[in-house]
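Researcher: Structure prediction, please.
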Amino acid sequence: MTIDAHCAPWARYGERVTTEQRDVPAVSEGEAFVERFARAWSECDAGALVALLAADVVLIQPMMPPTRGRDAAHSAFARLFRLIPDLHATVHRWAEGDDALFIEFTLAGTFGGREISWPAVDRFELRDGLAVRRVSYFDPGPLTIKMLTRPRGWGRLIRSGFRPSFGSGHAA
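Model: Predicted structure follows.
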């Protein structure tokens, strides 16, 4: 099996790594999740992202209150895709520890007639290959400024049902 280096943190950028070159299982739970995460974000579909989540998931992110459960997560992702229908993620690198999986990526899409993008890092706790908790880290300031300075997107913002919260989204 050969994988891209961006999905193999032990590899140098651009290097292809075969399973014969390392002393770990062919695909770890984290690596499999990262591959599914990248594929789900490429589909621009709330259902694809919710398939990554356990029924009792808790999602924590800036600008939004904590989201609990798959139904609430589906609603939150659906609102996000109504706001930015072509929103997708590019995974840059990831790391796996005993109790957490970190994925560094860039979200990008079109808002107000122009591309909008922002970097993020998500920390996941997994159970049986599904996320039971996700904490997303990104600076909402530049994103907020980009959205506020694009009045062409304001109507979509209102219609999407997306309602940012400016309190701490990391409490749970």
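Model: The first strand starts at residue 2 and ends at 3.
Researcher: Thanks, that helps.
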